[in-house]
Amino acid sequence: MPETLKRLIDMIHFLPGIGEKTAAKLAFFLLKANSAYVKNFAKTLAELHEKVMECDQCHGMTDIWSPLCKICADQKRETSLLCLVEDYLDMMSIERTGVYHGYYHVLWWVISPIAGTLPNKLNYISLFERISENKEIEEIIIATNPNIEWEATALYAIEHMPREIKISRLSKGLPHAGSIEYADEITLLSAFKGRG
User: Fold this and answer.
1) Which of 72, 83, 119, 169 is the most core-located residue (most Cβ within 10 A)?
2) Is the pTM of this model over 0.85?
3) What sign does the CA torsion over 121, 122, 128, 133 have?
4) What is the pLDDT of residues 41-52, one digit of tens each?
């Protein structure tokens, strides 16, 4: 096998959830694809770290030329609600349901001493600052994946809230050890409506 092709397969295989056979299939697709598509794909990939950054407010993703993501910049959203999520994919999954119209805060990890992830590595400081400074926030919705790491992550947030505030959690519908990112829209809709 040509060295360049093998290197491409290895790089694709490194991506989460991509097995060796799928990596080979994708590499061969790129090899046989229109050269203009491959060049555009490579250009977009090269620009990823240059043109995408964290939102200054929620820590989601935004274009480099805009300090706030489209959600944080949208002044029509409900200022009283703040939804706490693990990562940007969870945020996007919730957005697709159309049931939630407040703002978000992305922690980017979960507390996991085994993996070496302690609270100081998560976006708690900016979360607590937002809640302290913005008195319009009346409710924090903890949209966590139902597993032991997220339970610890949620409890840390609850115990360190800088002021009295309503805290609710997603309810029924999310299976134990399930993931918000992979939950269907009906399940998420039910979990949001039944939060408490």
Assistant:
1) 83
2) no
3) positive
4) 999 999 999 999
